[in-house]
Amino acid sequence: MSHAPRKVERRRGPRYVVFRDCSIDLKGTRVAVTLLNISKHGLATLGPEMSVAPGDRIKVDIQGLAPGLEIVVVNVSFGRIGAEFDLTPERAAIWTEEFAQLTVGLAPLK
Questions:
Q1: Cys-Cys crosslink for 84: which of 26, 42, 56, 94, Cβ 3.0 to 4.6 Å?
Q2: Which H or E run contains 30?
Q3: What predicted TM-score, i.e. pTM, was given to this entire model?
Q4: What is the domain-level CATH number for residue 24?
Q5: How far is the C-alpha of 16 from the C-alpha of 57, rounded, in Å?
Q6: What is the pLDDT of residue 32?
Q7: What end-to-end distance do the CA atoms of the chain give, in Å?
Q8: Count of the separate structural domains present in the chain
């Protein structure tokens, strides 16, 4: 009896479409990108293709929020970067408040 492979869902919380300007600090060079969607645990951006790979640790600054969110790249495809946050406990507390403000009135993606 063969079993079909199960799809593994990596996301740990609802995602929200936000379309907001942001920038990625790529080895000292700021690259402008668009924040596509966000969750409490990660984000997706779209911009020019960059030399990043899964496992890379980089910083992202989202317009209107405190700068320097640390992220770990999970996937890269045609200018799109999917990443998880890697925040200190102090920065995570600030992020929790910012995330709540950022998503007020938004419905999660299904």
A1: 42
A2: strand 29-38
A3: 0.85
A4: 2.40.10.220
A5: 23
A6: 97
A7: 33
A8: 1
For residue 71, the enclosing domain spans: 16-102
Looking at residues 8-35, what average pLDDT do you find?
86
Cα–Cα distance between 12 and 28 in angstroms, integer?
31
> What mean pLDDT comes out for the span 39-68?
94
The partner residues of 44 in beta bridges, in order of sequence, read: 37, 82
Angle, CA 37 vertex, CA 6 and CA 103 arms, to 5°: 115
Burial class (CB in 10 A: 0-12, 13-18, 19+), 38: buried
33 vs 61: CA distance, rounded Å? 10
What does the alpha-carbon distance between residue 74 and residue 57 come to, in Å, rounded to a whole number?
10
State which H helix or E strand residue 58 sits in. Answer: strand 57-62
Q: Distance between CA 86 and CA 21 in Å, rounded?
A: 20
- The answer to whether residue 26 scores a pLDDT higher than 80 is yes
Q: Establish if 5 belongs to a structural domain.
A: no
Asked whether residue 4 is assigned to any structural domain, the reply reads no
Please report whether residue 110 resides in a domain: no
